[in-house]
Structure formats: structure tokens, C-alpha cells
Amino acid sequence: MSSTKMQAADTAPPDPTLFQYTNALKQFISPTTILPEKATGPVPTNKWWGNLLSLNAAGRLDPVYPSPYAVFIDNVAATIACSYLYDSMHQGPINVNGAISYYYFPRSSNLIFSCQAPSVQFSVEDWDDLTVQVSLTSGSSAFLRSVMALGQAYMTIQHGDVPICLSSESGIAAVDGQPFGDGFLYHGQVDVGKFVVTLHNGQRWLVCWSSPAKGQALTFTCDKQVLKSGAHFNGIVQAAIVASDDALQILEQYAGGYVHRGVVTCDTVHGFQYHWETRRAAVQSQQPTKASPPVLHFVLEHHKSILTFHSQAVVPALTLHSHTRGPMTAYLIDSASGNIWDFAFSEQDEQNVERCAQFHAPRDPSVQDIVENRLVDHLQDEINTAATWTLPPGYYFKGKALQKYGSLCLLAAKLASYKEFQTQVAPLAATALSKLKQLLDTANEFPLCYDVVYKGLITSEVFVKHDVNVEFGNAVYNDHHYHYGYFITGTQPPRSSIECLYYIYINIYYCASGCIFPILDGLLKESHIVPRYLIDSFPFVDKNEHGTANQRRAFSD
């Protein structure tokens, strides 16, 4: 699958005269889990699955959250745990802004798949815009392999020449209603490849598996509190949380289907598409059909209003919760629509964005508005505070400051155009402009450099201070298109002919210096030597953010 407008137009490496090449990041966060053939290309460290790229200080893997599930992979014990933790979230106290001060989820392994084989190694094998493929392998034939995606309805794990081994931190209470413990024996049936596992914490999980070779039925026993098949298995095993009896029927109906790959395309400013590649394993309990059944997949609330389908594809009876972004509703990925999800922004959304995506407010405030809302007082407070603000070095904070001071200059210029406020505001405008001038020096104490380990433009400050958290974590999160969006957006207007005090001044300065545009071109580059451009994580992008996304896309096109 390929993209069009999102495909790289410029594939030349970053200019070494502007961006020094370095492999020094290896001493901080070396990509130890990636297959060697994948490590030669760009590695997107700010994906939702970025915790799997390297081991933590304890030599273990940190969790990942392909909502609605949490996944805990233990590279030492050779296990993959799938959990549904929405009801387990711990929230801190409410802060002064009326929001929770913090939240966290316990590392609780609801359902654990074990790879019972010697000398198991964990690897990140492949990835694309929407999925990641990981494995636990032993030798050339024994493995557990999983393709994960945000919104997955099932945890899908391919088994290769290993027994199916299931356990739980909470303990398994029953299998299809049969009490689980010493002496447990489950006789499978040739035509039924599923059961419901009940845990001691009250959760129910549907477990399905594909048809074994030669149509043999599987048997399961209790082996030290592990639900274990009596023979090695080659095929697909799926697990899904069962929220209700109605949900169980739906999950059984669509079991066997799963997302294998996913690419995002964005051919217009009016929407975007998910191009899914799906796979299906034959589950014994299902009746064969001529057409491949659709694949079940969850969407977030903000997706629902912009998803367009030729037919009704929502499954409203199946709803779960993401970890922090609200409810998720099941939809279908259907071959009849080419396995494509088309997201289109409504005309009303487009009009709202068009109305607000400009440098001035959609309408000028009245004198009464200015007085009642104390705009001059607020402007004065902001500018006085800004005048004493000592900026940390780096393009991230310079970009934020450019937008902040630019906004203050715009507001000051607007208020100064009212004769009622001109005397009071004129000095404020001068102060704001003087502060803005300090940001226009393109020299930087910590120049950007090109990291050849993960491939991406990062700050050199990390190597001077030996701290991966500097520059808002730019060394760890290397999608510079996203990380330096403030700077990119704040410095793009010089290429236009907008006539206002702020932008005229920047235009004159930058055109005279001539050195900012090559840096911008480097930051906007998309090619095989930097991670593919995405604005944050596409499945999480809210429809209200697309104005900024389109603006940045237009700059790079």
C-alpha cells in the first residue's frame, strides 16, 4: 500500500553543513529490540508502541496501550499479557483548573500468553502508520507473534509450534463454567474452537483459536495454574474482554478477523483515509461463507462524526473504553468498501476552521467588549510577564515563544488601532516587539543534528547535558515534524505577504539573514532517512485539529 500526497517529495539526506550527523544517542537509548534489517531505516520513536523499542533500566519492556487494551510484554518470562484496565484507573486530586492532577493504571496482567520454549528472544519486526508487529521467538520455528493496532477488538497472537498457555495474575476461576484447578480437563470439539475464561476478579474473556491441522480437537489441562493445550499448536489465538452477553455474541460472530497492516493517506485537505490490510483465520465454530466476513475494530468518539460509509457499519451493542479518551464503539472493516475507512470533515467544520484559521479574530471586538473583558489589562499582564521570561535554549521553546510574542504583537496592534486605547497600548506594542526581536537570531546554543541511530533531527543539547528529557524530550521523540510544529508554523508567515507589524518585521529580518529557510526545509523534509510525517498519532487526532494539520501539510507540500 502506498500514499500519494503524503509521499516524500524530497528524499535527499539532511544537509550536513546544517545538521551534524551523530550516533551518540546509542549511549542513552539504543534500539536493542528491532530486527537488524529494520534498524537501518528511520525508526519512529514517538509512536504509541515506542516503549517496545528498547529496554528500561531494569532490562524490561514498559507497557503499551493499544486501546481499549493494555499490553504488557515480559521479555524475560517470554509472555504477552493483555488487560482491560478501564475500571482500574487511579485518579489524583482535582487541580486548580478543575482537572485531575494525574492518573495511572496498575500493571495488572488479566490474561497472559506464555511462549513455553527455550531461549526466547523479543523483537519488533515491522511497523507502519497504524500497526506494529512483535514476536517472541525460539529458534527457527517456535514463536508467538502479534500485530497490534489502536482500536483492536481482539488481542491476536499467532502461535508457532508451541502449546497454548494461558494464565492470569488474578487467577482463572472457570472455563466455560467448569471450575478450574488441579485435575481440570477440558475436552475440545472438532467443530468448536472457543471457550470463555472467567477470572477471579470477575472479568470474562472470550478465547478463540483457528482450526488445528488435520481437524484435531484440542484438550486443555491445568498445569500449575496455567491453562495449557495438550499439544503444540500452529495457528491464531484471539482473546477479547466480554462486557456483556450481547457483546459475547458479537465477538463470537466476528472472531478470526484482525488487522494486519494499516496505512494513512491524505490526498486532500478535507479528510484522510485508513487503508487496512486484514487477515482472517478460520474459527471452527463459524459457518463458512462465500464472502470474507468484515473485521471488527473500535473507533473513538470524535471519529464517529467524520467516518463515512456506503452502508451502516457500526456495531452499537459493542462499546468499550479507551484508557483516557472516552468510549470506543465497534465498527466494521469491510472488503466491500475496499477495506478503506474514509474520514471527511463536515462543511460546518470546514467553515469554522476557515473562519478561525487566520491571524486576526473573525470579527473585531467592540469597545464595550474590550472594556468588559479587560483586554488591555490582560495584554499588559502578559507582556510584563513575557518581558521577564528567560527562555530555555532550543527551537522547541523558541517556536512557542515566537507564537506567543507574535500573538501579543498582533493583539497590541489591533487594540492600538482604537483611538480609545492607543495611548495606553502603544508602549505595550513596543515592548512586545522588542521581545520578539530577541527571538529572531537564528543562531542557537544547541544546534539541531541528524541522529543516525533512529534517524531524525534532534537537539544537540541532549549530548551536552546528558539528559534525554531536554527540549521537551526531542531526543526520545524524534518526529521533528510534530515536535517543532510551533517553530515551523511560527516562522512560515515570512513566505507570505501578510501586512502587519509582526510579520513585516520578521519578513525583512529573515529575508535579509537568509539562513532560516534551509533549516525549515530540513525540518519539513519527509523521506527514507527520517520518520514518515504524521501529526501525533492519527487514531487519536481530533477533528478540530485538522486545521493545524492542513496548515502544516500545505507548508511541506
Automatic annotation (TrEMBL):
Alphabetically ordered keywords of this record: Carbohydrate metabolism, Cell wall biogenesis/degradation, Glycosidase, Hydrolase, Polysaccharide degradation
PROSITE patterns, alphabetized: GH81
A family per Pfam: Glyco_hydro81C
EC number: 3.2.1.39
Record InterPro entries: Endo-beta-glucanase, GH81_C, GH81_N
Catalytic activity from the UniProt record: Hydrolysis of (1->3)-beta-D-glucosidic linkages in (1->3)-beta-D-glucans
GO biological process, one term: polysaccharide catabolic process
GO molecular function annotation: endo-1,3(4)-beta-glucanase activity; glucan endo-1,3-beta-D-glucosidase activity
Glycosyl hydrolase family 81 C-terminal domain ranges (all copies): 375-489
Gene3D superfamilies, A to Z: glycoside hydrolase family 81 endo-[beta] glucanase, Golgi alpha-mannosidase II, domain 4
Domain Glycosyl hydrolase family 81 N-terminal: 38-335
Membership in a protein family: Belongs to the glycosyl hydrolase 81 family.
PANTHER family attached to this UniProt entry: ENDO-1,3(4)-BETA-GLUCANASE 1, GLUCAN ENDO-1,3-BETA-D-GLUCOSIDASE 2
Full protein name: glucan endo-1,3-beta-D-glucosidase
Organism: Aphanomyces astaci (Crayfish plague agent)
